[in-house]
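Render this sequence as a predicted structure.
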Amino acid sequence: MQKVLLALSLVFVSLFFIPLFVLRGYSETPGLTSGSEQTVRVLIKTSGKIVNMPLEEYLVGVVAAEMPADFTLEALKAQAIAARTYTVKRMFNYEAKPSAEHPSAEVCTDSVHCQAWDNDDTLREKWGTIKYTVNINKIRTVVRATQGQVITYGGIMIDPVYHGSCGGKGTENSEDVWPGEVPYLRSVDCLNEYGGSDQICTIEVNKPELLSRLKNAGLGSVPAVAGKEPLLFPVKKSARGRLQEVKVFGQKITGTGLRQALGLTSTFLTWEIVDGKMRVSSFGKGHAVGLCQRGANGMAVAGSNYRTIISHYYTGVKIQKLRD
């Protein structure tokens, strides 16, 4: 009798609980697992070594490197979810299309190409011993609190681009910065951006130095055209006022090219001639598309949670859990 009851129990489990588990799994993001057991292959920029790291532990180093630790918990949570989405999307797509920059690793620690990442030694040096303990525990808390959460649009993980500051001018549409319109990367207002003076970068250059910098940046030879051609002349700006094209002595280059050549922090630029030199100032930090980190912190200070922050900066998205 006991054997019969056991057999009936197994049948009941197979008919009810197993299908329920499968359906629950497919209601979330398919094809991925969540939890601390999942590892990511990371190319360490400084050493050139590839290291296998637990995904969630890797994210602690990313959040610590990408966002100030004194930001609010809700802003840090939004950053953790954006960083996780970026990482898992590349893990998911790696087999089909490895990166040419690091074909043996899914991500790298070069912030220009992937995401920034700091190890414990770097963080101790940056924060000091006492602050290290406080800050690392804070960041571990936000990563743990958002474990397994990613951002999707139409059921597919997004490319969650983010930047330091939009200079209080609002974010940009993707097509105003890069080729191609992305439906969830729409321009939005950024009324609560927190902080300002440290997001302004100013340099002074004379004419020969300007030409030298443009040449060193690989923008080709920019001739010093004779006549009345101005040193810099804006050709095209985005709706938010960021420079998209500019003439340098009459030759067109992109706003991004000028920004990079001059070592400035954004394409929201102003300039003037002072004592024969050109003084150029940039406002904000980064490309101004997607999540604005200082704006996220400002929203959190004003009372918004991480879900509201993410929904504001990424239009029409959902936050979903990776499949159990």
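Summary. Residues 2-26 form the longest helix (25 residues). The chain is about 35% helix and 20% strand.
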